[in-house]
Amino acid sequence: MVVLSVAIAVALTRSGGDDRPPAEPSPAEPSPAERLGLGGLAGQRLIAGWDGAAPPRGLRLLIRSGGLAGVILFDDNIASGRRVRRTIEGLQAIKRPDGLGDPLLVMVDQEGGQVKRLPGPPEASAEVIGTRGQSYALEQGGKTARSIGGVGFNVDLAPVLDIARPGSAIEREDRAFGDQSGQVIAAGVNGFGAGLQSRGVAATAKHFPGLGAAETNTDLASQRITLSKDELRSADEQPFEAFSRRGGELVMLSLATYPAFADRPAAFSKKIVTGELRGRLGFEGVTITDGLGAAAAEEFGPRREVALAAIGAGNDLLLYSDWRAARRTAALLRKRLLTGRLSRADFEPSVARVLGLRARLIPGSG
User: Fold this and answer.
1) In whole angstroms, how far apart are CA 56 and each of 81, 109, 155, 204, 318?
2) At 122, which CATH number?
3) The whole model's pTM is what?
4) CA triplet 18, 19, 23: central angle to 5 degrees?
5) How far apart are the first and last CA of the chain?
6) 246-266 residue pLDDT tens
7) CA angle (51, 54, 55) in 5-degree steps
8) What single DSSP character describes residue 115?
């Protein structure tokens, strides 16, 4: 009897001395994306530009309300290095809603050659950089990051990772690092892109799954690239796979159509954005469309259809050169979220990736 009493006492001691059920685990803290209202959720899917040197009041109000994840600057926004620095500092200083205080994404197309918004590096076109090899490309990427980071840009919409096929627009414009995937990987991924990111400027690989066979720039006309899946995967996608493996921050989706995958532009195809880029290649960074004011996007359909197709395909960010178009899209997305026609659960992973990128970038870190 004594033995039995001791055994019971030991058992009670080990179990905590009572028969209460185990405590419920504390609920997990909501993530930054989960804490945002619908307007903030919609806004974190959008990048916008404007006309002229000074950002208009409507753009600044959109930022103040949390209606943009960032901005893009073009030639007419950049009068001088000192002026653009003040402009970017002013935009970053705008008070934003709780949870959105990290730096805005401030983007620029600084490829070199014909596509270059600011003076200074890169000191050659991608074609020339590619011929001079990985070390030179790495140096040029680092110099470019110091230059554009010094005035406040934290995202370069470069490197172009398209393979220059004979007769293509990319080849004529000297925007590709080479006509072989190995050369593009060495100069574009391990060189220029790595140089940008080593200095705190996020690199953007473009234009997935490869625009190197397009005869015309998609800014000017729709393009159909009739390469087979095997050709695209064994050549054109290889630099993007290398970029993904190296931890590249952003990938821009092409506006050309690839019938081997889908009968619509890549940026509007879930098979390409979600299936091919994220699923097959394992890309975990932020996806962004090419500019949705391009002819190839406008020929696809009305603005609302374009925006919903881009969101449905799985793009994290939609890129607009006109802030007013972005504002209209923000209203559309918010309304669809409110009525349940767009799922908040589907939105939050994209917004989490965008907020994560913003949190990692420091203005002027180049």
Assistant:
1) 19, 21, 22, 27, 20
2) 3.20.20.300
3) 0.91
4) 95
5) 78
6) 999 999 999 999 999 999 999
7) 70
8) E
Calpha distance 307→314 (Å, rounded): 11
Domain count within the chain:
1
Residue with tokens 């659960």: 345
Is 8 a residue whose pLDDT tops 80? Answer: no
Q: Is residue 22 part of a domain?
A: no
Structure tokens at 98: 């709780």
User: Is 280 strand, coil or helix?
Assistant: helix
* Residue written as token pair 């050709």: 231
Q: Is residue 4 part of a domain?
A: no
What is the per-residue pLDDT for 263? 97
What are 229's two structure tokens? 């899946």
Task: Give the side-chain half-sphere CA count within 13 A for 121.
Answer: 21
Q: Where are the alpha helices (DSSP H) in the chain?
A: 2-15, 32-35, 38-43, 57-64, 81-92, 126-132, 134-149, 169-172, 181-184, 194-198, 229-231, 238-245, 270, 295-298, 303-313, 323-339, 344-360
